[in-house]
Design brief:
Length: about 50
């Protein structure tokens, strides 16, 4: 990477870090939602089978 204005580099790095954090949080939410759906589905099948 060519050395630019250090302040600009710092701003870009900060911006990139916040984007990564946002993406990670989004990913975690999706994973948790999928996990919740799976367990719900499993319990629904269990109930249906037992009744």
């Amino acid at each position: 990477m060519t050395s630019m204005n250090p302040e600009i580099e710092y701003e870009l790095m900060k911006n990139h870090a916040s984007e990564l954090r946002k993406a990670a949080a989004e990913h975690r939410r999706v994973r948790e939602a999928q996990r919740a759906n799976k367990s719900e589905r499993r319990s629904v099948f269990g109930k249906r089978r037992s009744s």
